[in-house]
Design goal:
CATH architecture: Beta Barrel
Strand content: 35-45%
Radius of gyration: 15 Å
Number of domains: 1
Distance between the termini: 9 Å
Helix content: under 10%
Structural class: mainly beta
């Protein structure tokens, strides 16, 4: 099983062990585009793994800060009180790069950059770049993905669209 993300297509797909698409979801990657540098607010490319899964069993729209639930549940009223907050909701799949010098270690380390696949408020755009570097998903979609993948699942973030022969 593996996850592929197309930055160009703003799409995530889950493939089974035979390379067949099990599920496909719209996503939102970085408004700053692709890139690996620390503090760039870009979505890193290349091969990653799911290093940790955070939020199992948390209610829909649970708010996380520093990978910890705050006890808040996102609502439009809460969002209006904090309009500039970068909402991380429902579930977190924390990614770790596997390519030293490209997306792992030093100033390009995806895990040290806190790059996640995570839920976002339902009023946020999907299918267009809008994040601060992470891969945002609809809350119900991130729950479905979270429940299907184990820690260690391969994640390949592509700048281009998908290819039928993309490999993990």
């Amino acid at each position: 099983m593996r996850i592929e993300v197309s930055i160009a297509g703003q799409q995530l797909r889950l493939l089974n062990e035979h390379g067949e698409v099990e599920a496909s979801y719209p996503v939102s990657t970085a408004i700053n585009g692709p890139g690996e540098a620390r503090n760039s607010c870009c979505t890193p490319r290349g091969r990653h793994i799911v290093r940790a899964k955070i939020g199992a069993g948390a209610p829909l729209n649970s708010v996380f800060v520093g990978r910890r639930p705050t006890g808040e549940i996102w609502t439009q009223a809460l969002a209006l009180q904090q309009p500039d907050r970068d909402w991380i909701l429902t579930r977190i799949l924390w990614l770790s790069g596997t390519e030293p010098g490209f997306n792992r270690l030093a100033n390009v380390d995806s895990m040290q950059r806190y790059i996640y696949i995570h839920g976002t408020p339902d009023d946020q755009p999907m299918g267009v770049p809008h994040s601060h570097g992470c891969i945002r998903m609809r809350n119900r979609d991130v729950i479905a993905l979270f429940d299907k993948v184990p820690v260690g699942t391969a994640v390949h973030i592509l700048e281009t669209g998908f290819t039928e022969t993309a490999s993990a």
